[in-house]
């Protein structure tokens, strides 16, 4: 019991530091850097193309998205590209965006040689970063899926609501 009391005291005294070190996915984005936005997608993709062939396509009529949807869309693509670099280095990656009347669909697919284990075990969105963007997408009323592809590689998909008549 003495060790438990000591641990409890440490958590109560330093809990804020522990949460900061874990990097909670629920926290807002860092305000000191440029705001995440699909307007910066070229720069994001360019940052990954040095060691990884990445191409992206867009379908539908691009339009301004509500702020939270724009940020979450950017973060989903950023996390998927980060995971592709980490788990399928050098493999081609395709990013697809599709605007429609209901919102935006995102697909990021790498052509890795096989499914890479995320989080040391399962592959179905078990990475902490993937869980964070899943929560963000679902909080907006969207859907999110991530998993290995039958022929190898990994796919991340999200659909985020952003009706045409609502602009943020």
Keywords:
21% strand, 5 strands, 168 residues, alpha+beta, five-stranded mixed sheet
Walk me through what this model shows.
The chain has 168 residues and is an alpha+beta fold. It contains four helices and five strands, in the order H-H-E-H-E-E-H-E-E. The chain has helices at residues 2-22, 41-48, 67-87, 128-139, and strands spanning 54-59, 93-100, 103-110, 143-148, 154-161. It has a five-stranded mixed beta sheet, covered by helices on one side. Helix 3 links the parallel strand 1 and strand 2 (93-100). Helix 2 runs parallel beside helix 3 (67-87). It is globular and about 40 Å long. 26% of the residues are buried. Mean pLDDT is 79; it is low at 14-27 and 115-126.
**String of helices and strands:** HHEHEEHEE
Discrete helix count: 4
The count of strands amounts to 5
Helix content: 25-40%
User: Beta-strand percentage?
Assistant: 15-25%
Largest β sheet strand count, sense and barrel closure = 5 strands, mixed
Q: Judging from the principal axes of the Cα atoms, what is the shape?
A: globular
By helix and strand content, what is the structural category?
alpha+beta
**Computed Rg:** 18 Å
Mean pLDDT: 79
Low-confidence stretches: 14-27, 115-126
């Amino acid at each position: 019991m003495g060790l438990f009391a000591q641990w409890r005291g440490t958590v109560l005294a330093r809990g804020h530091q522990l949460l900061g070190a874990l990097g909670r996915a629920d926290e807002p984005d860092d305000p000191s850097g440029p705001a995440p936005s699909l307007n910066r997608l070229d720069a994001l993709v360019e940052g990954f193309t040095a060691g990884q062939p990445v191409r992206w396509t867009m379908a539908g009529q691009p339009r301004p998205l509500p702020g939270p949807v724009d940020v979450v869309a950017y973060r989903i693509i950023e996390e998927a590209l980060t995971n592709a670099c980490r788990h399928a280095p050098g493999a081609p990656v395709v990013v697809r965006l599709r605007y429609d009347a209901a919102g935006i669909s995102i697909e990021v697919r790498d052509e890795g040689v096989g499914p890479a284990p995320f989080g040391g075990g399962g592959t179905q969105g078990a990475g902490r970063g993937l869980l964070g963007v899943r929560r963000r997408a679902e909080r907006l009323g969207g859907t999110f899926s991530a998993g290995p592809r039958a022929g190898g590689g990994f796919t991340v998909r999200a659909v985020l609501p952003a009706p045409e008549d609502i602009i943020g």
